[in-house]
Amino acid sequence: QIRTIAPETCVTDPETGINNCILATQNVPAKIKGAEIELYTRPTDNLDLGLGVSLLDAKAYELGYVYQGEIITWETRQMLQAPDYTVNGQITWNLPLAGGDNGGIELHTNFNFVAEQNYDPFNGEALRQKPYTYVYASVKYRPRNQNWEIYAWTRNALNEFYRRGGDDFSATRRYHSIAINPPRWYGLTFRYNFNL
Known about the structure:
The chain is an all-beta fold. The chain is 0% helix and 67% strand. Strands 3, 4, 5, 6, 7, 10, 11 and 14 form an 8-stranded antiparallel β-sheet that branches. It has a two-stranded antiparallel ribbon with strand order 1-2.
């Protein structure tokens, strides 16, 4: 079972038009089924590959609330933050520099594709997240037998717009609250190991 919060009774203020609601907590039956597979391989000494797929069927049943004395019920709804599937992968390629004593360059990228998901237990359109793909990439220089490294990176390389969370306050305060991901951004990182 899962616990949800939904409006129990709502009365509209005739002067302001604002709905004043009492929130009630209810337990509803739920079923969760899923599978996940991950594959990692190193076809050469300098190349690493990874791929993962996750399948999820997470549903809540008999979800509903009482509105003005009438019971309103939805038979089936997708559970919160439970996309039907996700796909992730990564590639790391190490390139030794000429001579072998000058260290090497590491090229790395990884991605995560997330199918449609909901941040509202009733699956309202306002808090429904469309599918998106998050991509990270970096280029790293690591000198041989040294304690430091430097790398340039970019996060959200495709500049995808997606929500990281949200809440529905429309019943009581007539608005939704959402948390939005950072846009595409870049950086340069220097790292030193003091070997303490």
